[in-house]
Design goal:
The chain has about 200 residues and is mainly beta. It is built from one helix and eleven strands; from the N terminus they run H-E-E-E-E-E-E-E-E-E-E-E. The protein is elongated and about 55 Å long.
């Protein structure tokens, strides 16, 4: 899988460099919130991933109906390990045993301008792949999850829609995980992200 992602990234970079010489390039810094849907078990512990935040930069290369939309984003997500017996105990503080996972996502999307070249209002659709690299896990005294428990390089498919109003942008995307989030444990991470940004 790592070799496939490397080949795809290299091919896309070559394509982007060749296209950039003849296409208009727009910058789109963004900040947003995300919600993960991770369902996996480590021994007798159930793993959950919840809400988080993210910030990064997208590029729009091309001003026609079809454009390229690569980017790089920092993600911070909350993860929690729960003993299944604790789920039935109302006295257990489920927010206590949780931690933060930081990662970098580098989406490689193809976009479609659905409303033509309007400068006031634009509606877009996008799709592609999203490689993800885990940077770190915030370890605590009460939390047993470590970075060694994770597959640090994963990937997924990405689909989304976006709206432009003048220089403001809003994007809603859904990532469908295609690789197991944990080592030797079945369970993929799907993620819904809402971003707001500006373009120039």
């Amino acid at each position: 899988m790592k070799r496939l992602i490397t080949v795809l990234l290299t091919s896309c970079m070559v394509l982007l460099m060749s296209w950039q010489t003849q296409a208009q390039v727009k910058l789109n810094p963004q900040i947003g919130v995300n919600v993960s849907a991770l369902d996996a078990k480590i021994g007798d512990l159930k793993t959950e991933a919840k809400a988080g935040w993210n910030a990064g930069l997208d590029f729009r290369i091309g001003d026609g109906f079809i454009y390229l939309n690569p980017g790089a984003h920092f993600y911070s997500n909350t993860a929690r390990l729960l003993n299944e017996a604790d789920l039935e105990d109302p006295n257990i503080d489920m927010w206590r045993d949780e931690t933060k996972i930081q990662s970098i996502k580098t989406p490689l999307n193809i976009g479609f301008n659905l409303t033509g070249g309007s400068k006031f209002l634009g509606i877009r659709a996008e799709g592609g792949i999203v490689p993800t690299y885990v940077l770190g896990v915030k370890e605590t005294d009460t939390y047993t999850l470590k970075i060694e428990d994770l597959n640090r390089l994963t990937w997924g498919y990405n689909v989304g829609v976006g709206v432009d109003v003048l220089f403001l942008t809003a994007d809603l995307s859904y990532e469908i995980g295609q690789a197991n989030f944990f080592k030797d444990v079945e369970g993929k991470n799907n993620m819904l992200t809402l971003n707001l940004g500006i373009r120039f």
